[in-house]
Amino acid sequence: MSAKSIVRAGDPVLRRVAAPVADPTSPRIADLLREMEASLAEAGGIGLAAPQIGVSERVILISVPAARKTDDPEDGPLPLTALINPALEPVGEDRALGMEGCLSIPGLRGEVPRWTRVRLTAVTPQGEPVDTVMTGMRARVLQHEVDHLDGILYLDRMTDFTRFGYVEELIEAEMRDVPAPQPEQESTQEPVT
Ligand code: NI
Q1: How many Å lie between the centroid of ligand 1 and the Cα of residue 169?
Q2: pTM
Q3: Domain parsing of the chain, residue ranges
Q4: Domain 12-175 classified CATH 3.90.45.10?
Q5: Would you call 7 helix, strand, or coil by DSSP?
Q6: Residues with catalytic roles
């Protein structure tokens, strides 16, 4: 399945509420997921929502590489996971700030408050129900992708636009602010979804 180009901010499809999928196990959804996987692999991100390849349906891919997990003991790496009709509700009141990027807003990063724990319900492409709690980076990536299904971009969630900018400038500023040598890895850990 060939990769489709990723839709960028400004395209109305990113502002639409995506439609629920009636049959998660249909061959059409399997094809859509293959297309999404190819597009995500080509773009080099960690998550993708169907509207980002122009398909307004409630389908997402999420992953968490080991290097990007938070210090939360329940957080952890997550292999690429397909979720259909995902729904989230916060567990508890805690929120955390973290830098995010988006394949639909290339080159930029911003600091976004997110729930630290969320309950996820969804269906797998095999038709199995999912009902689980995710924390840390898993919860962050999930919230970012489910927002895409509701026409919401991370910019809409930001509260401090002094913490927004081009990746290169943010990294440079961070290195200026922190006199101790910073491994470059630390500055590039923001999820791009
Ligand atoms: Ni995104």
Answers
A1: 20
A2: 0.91
A3: 12-175
A4: yes
A5: coil
A6: 145
